[in-house]
Specification:
2 domains; Rossmann fold; globular; alpha/beta
């Protein structure tokens, strides 16, 4: 079997519009895991927001992993061991928070309990909490409140403004941070060099494997490095155009078993799958 590791983005990819895994996709993934494929749930979400999906797929039994914070951390679901960890540079916390205020967007990060933000009433801060099913802790000054290690920040705002915000941030923090949009309203901010493909590369090295052994599925801008890195990059039909262009294969959308169909075709070898 060529593909020994399967990396899956979550929102817009593994989960459907209701944020659940469809039965056909779940069955295909369980079969792949039983055949020895290591499943990695690769998301910008915090670890706590991925854990319920890992449990639904029984990754603690099959040796799967959680790649959270867009590559900031990889956790072995069976042993609980942290395999990869990248801490956000403390010296840049204040600068990121100041940038958010100056550009009219909300900043948030995460503690062990959930989201931490100055703006709990912001619709997009609430959306991040809703997606992950975690609470929001309001603080008066986010930069001062972050006196603990974090893996990433998230800037959230009106989708019409976020491309401009991203461009300005790329300019101001060039050579200092890695910056990717995961949704039209979410801008992921990680330590420099941190993204899904870089952390997957470290995981493959630990396993004695190469990118040729990796199949990856995604739909958003932050999935581009991962799909280009993988031996087989699969884009969802609902993916942004840039992701479709970069992918080796385009499967069905996330509401029509796109991940399940791709797994059936390329890992399980079932005929007739699109």
């Amino acid at each position: 079997m060529q593909y020994k590791v399967l990396a899956l983005d979550l929102d817009g990819t593994l989960t459907n519009s209701r944020k659940v895994i469809t039965p056909r996709t779940q069955a295909a993934l369980r079969q792949a895991a039983a055949a020895g494929v290591r499943i990695v749930l690769a998301s910008g979400r915090p670890t706590v927001g991925i854990a319920p999906l890992a449990k639904a797929l029984a990754l603690q039994e099959s040796g799967g992993c959680i790649l959270s914070y867009n590559g900031g951390k990889i956790l072995d679901c069976t042993t609980g061991e942290v395999l990869v960890q990248h801490a956000f540079p403390p010296a840049l916390v204040g600068d990121v928070c100041a940038f958010a205020r100056q550009n009219g967007v909300a900043a948030l990060t995460y503690d062990s309990g959930g989201v931490v933000s100055e703006h709990p009433g912001d619709a997009y801060v609430q959306e991040e909490a809703r997606i992950n099913a975690i609470p929001i802790r309001q603080v008066a000054d986010l930069a001062k409140a972050v006196d603990f290690a974090v893996n990433k920040f998230l800037l959230v705002g009106d989708p019409a403004r976020m491309p401009h915000v991203e461009e300005r941030m790329q300019q101001q923090f060039a050579g200092k941070l890695s910056i990717y949009r995961s949704q039209p309203f979410f801008l992921e901010i990680m330590p420099l060099g941190v993204e899904k493909s870089a952390s997957l590369g470290l995981l493959l090295g630990r396993l004695g494997l190469t990118p040729a052994n990796l199949m990856a599925c995604g739909d958003g801008w932050n999935d581009l490095p991962m799909l280009r890195f993988a031996g087989l990059g699969v884009a969802m039909e609902n993916a942004v155009p840039e992701v479709k262009v970069a992918a080796d294969y385009v499967t069905a959308d996330n509401d029509h078993d796109g991940v399940g169909l791709a797994v059936e075709k390329f890992i399980l070898g079932k005929e007739g799958c699109v």
